[in-house]
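Readers outside the structure-tokenisation community will struggle with the description of the input data as it stands. What matters is that the chain and its backbone geometry are given together, residue for residue. For illustration, here is how one protein appears when written out as sequence plus structure tokens:

…
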Amino acid sequence: MIAIATGAAVTILGLFSNTALGFGCSPFSMINGWKNLSPNSMMESGGMMSSMMNDSPKDVIIKVVSSQQVSVGKDSQVTLLVLDRNTGQPMTGTQVSLGLEEGAPMSTMNMIGSMFDAEELGEGKYVAKFSVDKPGYYTLHVHIIPSGKSMHSMMSNHMDVGIIAK
């Protein structure tokens, strides 16, 4: 009975404090954090999504080695080169997970389909295969999980690639 009463008191106090048990997750702290955001601030450098991902990949270098222009309604592909940031050597056996968004990065949140993996070609090259059904600007979100690293490392090894569909 004492445990239930204590739990209820902690919950109620957490709702009326700036933090609940030091986690910073009370409704008031959430509202205070959100009320200062501009409509585009999630996409700006100080936004939440931007802070979740590094500005440049931590463990890898990602280079686009093909055209970034694709044809509407046709099977398209973009080839990427993934290099070890420390050695500069091509990385093989990495997981390259991709997401395709209509519009500029994190602007529309209109993801086309679910995330998919690139096909490894060898010597650090990976190909992203996809198709789009209308002309415009798209963002290919590239997430790298180096061999031996956890899935969490994909947030530290991210790069957005602009795609033009004509």
The first helix runs from residue 2 to 15. Residues 3-54 have pLDDT under 50 and may be disordered.
